[in-house]
Please model this.
Amino acid sequence: MGDVTISGAISGIDTAAMINQLVSLQTNQQTLLRNQQSAVQKRADAYSSIVTSLNALSKQAGELAKTSAWVGSTATSSSASVTAQATGTTAASLTFDVTATAAAHTLISSDSVLSTSAQVASGGSLALTRLDGSSETIDVGGGTLSEVVTAINNSGSGLRATAVQTAPGAYRLQISSNETGAGSEFTLDGLDGFTGMSLLTQGTDASITIGTNPETAYTATSSTNTFDELIPELSFTVSKVESGVTVSAAIDGSTVADQVEAMVKTANALLSDISTKSSWDITTKTGGPLSGDSTARTLTQNILGIAGTSGAPGVELSRDGRLVFNRENFLDAFVKDPSAVAQAFGAKATFTADVAATSTSVELIGSTSASRSGTYTLNITSSSARDQWTMNPPGGIISGQTVVLMRGSSLVSYTAGATDTMSDVIDAINLRSASAGFGVTASLDGTTVVFAADRAGTSGGFTATLDDAEGTHTVTGRDIAGWIDGQEARGVGDVLSLVTGEGTAVGLSLKVTTTDADLAATGGDVGSISFSAGLAQRLIALAEDATRSTTGLVTSAGEGAKSQINRIQEQIDAWDKRLDTYRETLTRQFTAMETALARMQSTLTMVNGLSTNMLGTNNS
Model:
């Protein structure tokens, strides 16, 4: 059973209060630890806040670093019926006449039936044949008009059907292609409930004529009403036939300037936050949670250093350590050379060819935040190649024969008519290939038809046959292969990418055009690429380096603060046990004192009693 004491019962001293005071004196150390822990927690919270701000800066810089997506020009049209859109940084102008608009091929039944429940396809299926020669069977169930309409619309065949009521008790079937253009033509067999299907609208391409001189004017066509490849980075959509339309694109950096300004504001907000958290008030002798912190100081210096050395137009440094955006200077530079401005914010690369690599060129396709400025060797072990086939029709006569190009399940075919020349067949194949996005171009080399993939690499491979007889496979599609910075890179088509690896070249993607002769002359060491990251790209890298898990400048400091908080908490917990032990010790000591005093008082009382008795006996 533990000791029991009544505070000061014998001594008259408030021992409970004295114990509390003595224990309280010892808690000063624990209080200091709690204050220290609170300060470290504020530092940890400050690091966390900076990480959030760095992520926001990285996101904005990431959008700006995608220079291929910059909208650096504005488009105008002289006609309300032609809408224009600029998608890049190119200035251009084009005047033309709209001679035709695109239309979807549409058929309508030659006659009508009494109701939608009338049977119009007794065979239970329809045979669809497209202009490119591909075919498909559509199951129509019982073959009523209603079932035919539903089956076509649900078939995924690219057609839409409607039962049109032209008069009471008179229903006709109308079928249209979902796509427009000359390539949307089709036939549909099996509709024996009608006397036939008639052409309602011929599928046609939109066409425009450029130039007024009959000898030099030329025509451009599009399967839709939109022309998006005629002029790089300028597309326009026509809606009616008219003459003298002018569409233009003018360089305009306003949208990009807004992005740069927003990024600068975010960077300044981060710098201001770091400054506030690192401040020291001489008057009050108090500082922010990061006062004197080397991490905050290093981060500030890195941001200002990147901005000050980037050479990015319009971004300058102020005397008080902030970024300044000079919009006028930016716009002036953008108008003069938008490409140079894009490189200053995104990235650029310069290829230095070996003296023997006379036909080799390299273009920077992309980079990541892992890519750092530097010069890297480029070794090519195999050049890229486009798949190629040839055909030699007997006697140069192709009429009545069918050409089929196939890649996987995709195909393009054309059966030459009785009067078709070789040129006619090539034009038809190229039209169908373009409409289907097949990516093969046909050309004529004497009497030999040459089919070549539009892109290099194994993914562009295809086969070519003439009346089921395979053509001659003259070139096999091949992906480029090689090394960047001494590390094996991945080749797709003519693009070589260092996706993973070590060092600062990781993330580079390069379009390499070379020849076997160059590779033989150089042993594959075709030259070197000098890569330079721009302002936005460098800010992304800084943010990622600073916030990288466990090793980042800011995250490691934050983890260090959290560890310190835990260590201090362990000391606080240890003091709790120590103080409990100390209180127990004091309580036992004071209890023993009171007990001893009680015994002494009891003895004294007994002695006094004996003394009194003895005196009384003597007096008697």
